[in-house]
Design a protein that fits this description.
Two copies of one chain form a homodimer. Chain A has 677 residues and is mainly alpha-helical. Helices cover 67% and strands 4% of the residues of chain A. In chain A, strands 2-3-1-4 form a four-stranded antiparallel sheet, sandwiched between helices. Chains A and B meet through helix 11, helix 12, helix 27 and helix 28 of A and helix 11, helix 12, helix 27 and helix 28 of B. Chains A, B: Pfam families: PHM7_cyt, RSN1_7TM, RSN1_TM. Chains A, B: One of its GO terms (cellular component) is plasma membrane. Chains A, B: GO terms for molecular function: calcium-activated cation channel activity.
Chain lengths: 677, 677
Amino acid sequence: MPRLVAEEKVEHEEEFRVGRLLPSFEWIKKAWRPSEDDLLSYSGLDAVVFMRIFTFGLRVFRFAVIVGILILLPFNYAGNQLSIDFSDLPNKSLESFSISNVDDGSNRLWIHFCAIYIFTAVVCYLLYIEFDYIASKRIAFFYSSKPKPDQFTVLVRSIPITPERSFSESVESYFSEYYPSSYLSHSMVRRTGKLRGLVNKADKAYKKLVHLKSKNDEQQRYTRSGCLGLCGRRIDLEEYEKSLEDMEHNVMTERSAIVGKEVAAAFVSFKSRLTAATVIHVQQRLKPTEWVTEQAPDPQDIYWPFFSSLFFTKWLSNIAVIVAWICITLLFFIPVAFVQGLANLDQLERWFPFLKGLVEMKVVSQVVTGYLPSLVLDLVQSLVPPVMILLSSIQGYIAFSKIEKSACIKLLWFTIWNVFFANVLSGTALYNAEIFLEPKNVPAILAVAVPGQASFFISYVVTSGWTKIFSAKLFRLKPLIWSYVKGILCCNSDEEHEVPSNPYHSEIPKILFFILLGITYFFLAPLILPFVLVYFCFGYIVYRNQLFNVYKPKFETGGKFWTVVHDATIFALILMHIIAIGIFGLKKVPIASSATIPLPILTLIFNSYCRRRFLPSFRGYPAECLINKDRMDENDPSTSSFFDELGTAYRDPAVKSRRDSRRSESSDSPLLDRYNV
Amino acid sequence: MPRLVAEEKVEHEEEFRVGRLLPSFEWIKKAWRPSEDDLLSYSGLDAVVFMRIFTFGLRVFRFAVIVGILILLPFNYAGNQLSIDFSDLPNKSLESFSISNVDDGSNRLWIHFCAIYIFTAVVCYLLYIEFDYIASKRIAFFYSSKPKPDQFTVLVRSIPITPERSFSESVESYFSEYYPSSYLSHSMVRRTGKLRGLVNKADKAYKKLVHLKSKNDEQQRYTRSGCLGLCGRRIDLEEYEKSLEDMEHNVMTERSAIVGKEVAAAFVSFKSRLTAATVIHVQQRLKPTEWVTEQAPDPQDIYWPFFSSLFFTKWLSNIAVIVAWICITLLFFIPVAFVQGLANLDQLERWFPFLKGLVEMKVVSQVVTGYLPSLVLDLVQSLVPPVMILLSSIQGYIAFSKIEKSACIKLLWFTIWNVFFANVLSGTALYNAEIFLEPKNVPAILAVAVPGQASFFISYVVTSGWTKIFSAKLFRLKPLIWSYVKGILCCNSDEEHEVPSNPYHSEIPKILFFILLGITYFFLAPLILPFVLVYFCFGYIVYRNQLFNVYKPKFETGGKFWTVVHDATIFALILMHIIAIGIFGLKKVPIASSATIPLPILTLIFNSYCRRRFLPSFRGYPAECLINKDRMDENDPSTSSFFDELGTAYRDPAVKSRRDSRRSESSDSPLLDRYNV
């Protein structure tokens, strides 16, 4: 429970009790009790929106389970399309509950048809009220928030080079000329890559020095950290201090040099939120590609390293990243095909004949077909989120929150393509991408391929959804082992606990994928629905616990992640419709097949309405709110001190040495004071 | 020359001279002489942009003719792919100049390959500088313009219903509360459909009365109008006056009733352009679908009848119109297929066996194959623009300019689909729409079909481009005959001349279609290029004359039509690339075929850059300009009187009786004064 530890709600020195390692169900109660408002005040709106995904999932699948299990399942089972091979019953038992078992041309398929229409209507209704709810929450959150620097600040990029004056001067002159009444100040962005490297190096060296000193002077530290610190190397302290001084000198020279290294970008702060919004929304200068304005992120949220300031380079890197992402997404199916090969033992035998003996052992075959595919998939998948984060950061987003949102979208499509489509299609046909060049055939191909993978996805929900994610999250085994190993190897165990933030970019796509599975298999194989419902029940409790006890919000987007959820659900619905069109065609009910065609069109129209209705509220705040907030501030005496701070809020942390929180907190040694000039 | 007549530059009573009917080339000199600035001051920026289409076309096809005729044509002719059937030479002579004549797998195709790359680069370069030029013109035009009501005014739609107060009160209270310093006034939109009908009826009756009176009292009018006015019916004047008085009474009661018929929309005027821009660009109230703001059009530009004020109805009618437009566009191919059937005489014989004897006559066959197809096409096509205008007006656009632009885009795609694709494909295969469901086969199908229609399109350029459009436009035969016929039938010959405005919505798609033809056939059949070039030479002169002498601008969009030209050219380039990919595949040069694939992608990337670079300038004006203009106004003494007028500028013409220009101009009779209460 890193967050509680960090906030010192749980005493650090609490004695080790074996009982604490045993499972207890106390936490469920604890996680259940707090209301949504508590969560909002404790972890911000993003956490609330994150939990709304589970609420939404629970509502959707509660309805789906009722319809699917009580109505569709009996009809599927009563069919006898597959009853010819009764000898093969154990293998086919799952499929006898699926739509494959309904007779061709049977009138019972009209029940499926109605179920699809009703289910779509219900999901759309739930989507609408959820979007509405979150949009209103977002405004309420804005009203209740304290004045924050990002509300008053605009990031200006692509400031053109003028021969006679510097970037800073041209920003100053433009904004003080055109917005004289509300322009407050600006701070230029500087090229601090080298400085940041030096500072980090010096920082590390300093920490090591402090650590070494502490080991020499204060022996009681050993007991507290409870680690194998004895195996550390002994280095001459004086030598160390000298090299640190050198570094310090480098930092200072670099810091003085940095002032000239201005980048064509600046954070411009205003005295009113409305002016900031005007500057953001109204094109400023003649060329739309120069003086590009956008909402500044929160100062803590800024990602400094990949700061691309020019419109053209940002645009180019954007295109390059999209191309790279498409390549990664499309070519990733090679390992997936391999995994799928493991599930199809026959294929494995064909590919690797030497494995034949091994494969024919019963235990091996069970393990291989049952668990290995999901495990390998998960393993490979866990490598992907960092790659996506990297791609998104190259794309030129300025804030962690934007990088995570972009990575979230990338990862979502990656997951859908590589887990859903690659699995579905590689079992049937290996020519994945090509079939999408002939859109006419897509429904038929999907209709053949998707129902066949129902049992695989049920096992995927269990292995990937139930066991792996929650146990790993809840007990945080990985970080525990990792910190233990690090403690042994580097003797750095007295490093402060870093409180993790919720990795939205990797969590949301996983959850959305289960929504996709549930919706797609809703009428194909209703047997998957209870598993998905249980997943969402588990998830609701577990993630509430995580958000209260483990994670600490790193940024606050004001619920912008919900748009991803909405789009993914719409996509899932349309995928279901396409499969339905194919299935009804295969089952020889062509009228039902054609009658399903309006459904995706209606869903898309609904989606476009939702986008018009809600999306603008997620891009910015309405003028009404901005003006009201501005007026509230006018009557607030603390505003003037806030404006004083605003001027320096957007300095690069590498440049503003004094304000670097981590170091200044523990600055009690004279060396540190000297170092922090 | 209606505009000159209306502006009384040409004396009306000038004696009829036979010489004036004879062709003279004086006008060419006259049309050539004025500079672009003259045109700008005389007919506005839209006229300049319209002429830039011709300048652009001339530049593109000057280059294309040089490359096509001097380089590609000889290579095509030197090939001997088609030389097998020398007996059929006259028929095939055109094709021997086309790419079909190049040998399969010949290395000469690499010359075509290079030509495509170079041509694309040149066209993109020209597009870029043209876009840049027009964007800068647009800003300059804005700077030089006088204060206009639309610059200060915002149209607010979808004002929600509140029980306690009227729409007008809620507009007043919102804007005076949130924009107290710059809010000036507002005028509500009212439901005036019935009133407008009554006013028009009374207007007509009044005109007739004046006409009858003039015939009785002032006999000299006969000579002036020079028409067969004697055949008019005699009606008792007193009876007529009485019915007019009734109408007048109706108008007055309706006008007093109209005040209550407020619609949820208002024109809100501000004292500064920047505030208006802020209100437009920043979402105003909590719900994005309420208080929807947009730039108000010029008061003369407003199209009152289809004023849909609610977001939801506008959104729905938008979707309905798009669906209707797609249906019209797709189903229109039936007459086109028939026309194409006429061109393929064999097919005609097959369809209508009884025509066999007729068709085999030489004259008939020549007429049928030569001219009839183009003529029928043009005839049917001339019915389409009004339909598109109707569709666009239902869509809920508030201004004539927007309706015309939207109709222009609709008509463009209509033309491309129904003239280009339907002709190209119906000759080869009748299953038009279906092939686009299999994108993989599109290049190959187009590569087979498009070159075959080269001779048809050459004749289309000549009949449709050269002869018909220009002769009809220049001599304005149709309006002349029409007004003559009307004069005979209705005795309304003393009606004022109505100066026509340039029908951009029907002219621009035609011109763009020739650009499309020229670009698409550039490497397929370079023989078409001189014809297209001549078309643009003609067009340049003729339309200059039209813009100076015939048309009077009805509205001013500030060059927004250029975006349509840009998009159409990009589409033409990509179409050419797709055909090239197919052709190189057919001609067995697969490497060239694959090497062409990056070209459309690069073109699209170029297009997306252009959109980012220029499009924002076409949506609004930058803050810099707005603030500068506002400051200029502050020093201008005439501004206060302008603001006084601004308050009443946005009244519905049916409501503001006094200011209705047409009637008040000629209000010298006491009846008229009474009628115009």
